Amino acid sequence: MTTHGPVMPIWSCGGCDLPWPCPTRKQELRAEYVDAPVSLALYLGSYLVQATEDMPWTPAGVLHRRFLGWTRAADQAMSAVQQ
After folding, report:
1. Using 50, 70 and 90 to split pLDDT, how confident is the model at 19?
2. Which pLDDT value is given to residue 79?
3. Mean pLDDT of 51-63
4. Taking 70 as the threshold, does the pLDDT of residue 36 lie above it?
5. What is the average pLDDT across 69-80?
6. Which residues does 8 contact at the CB level (< 8 Å), separation at least 6?
7. Banded model confidence at residue 78, pLDDT cuts 50, 70, 90
8. What pLDDT was estimated at residue 69?
9. What DSSP element (H or E) covers 26?
10. How far does CA 18 lie from the centroid of its chain?
11. N- to C-terminal Cα distance for the chain?
12. Residue environment code for 63-72, b if the CB has 16+ CB neighbours within 10 A, otherwise e
């Protein structure tokens, strides 16, 4: 069980007070969903929808990069390591 869950509606991390998902939670999620990148994207996408509703002043691109953009970069890095 992680202590790095989101604190809504401000979307900070309950464990370290950084913007959620924080680096620690990202690492945990990478490990948890190592063989299921689509499931990870769906999981984070649901949080993205909630965050968009809670923070309508935040540009959509910023929220997308924060919640989903890092997953694509992680997938590409893992593919490079495996080759």
Report:
1. very high
2. 54
3. 96
4. yes
5. 68
6. 50, 54
7. low
8. 95
9. helix 23-32
10. 12
11. 32
12. beebbeebbe
Query: What is the C-alpha separation between 12 and 21, in angstroms, rounded?
Result: 8
* Residue 74 token pair: 């992680």
Q: Give Cβ neighbours of residue 10 (< 8 Å, ≥ 6 apart).
A: 54
- Looking at residue 76, its pLDDT comes to 57
**Single-letter amino acid, residue 19:** P
- The tokens for 13 are 């991390």
In the structure encoding, which two tokens stand for residue 38, read together? 């689509």
Supply angle C-alpha 36, 65, 18, rounded to 5: 95
Answer yes or no: are the C-beta atoms of 48 and 40 closer than 8 Å: no
Residue tagged 């999620």 (tokens): 29
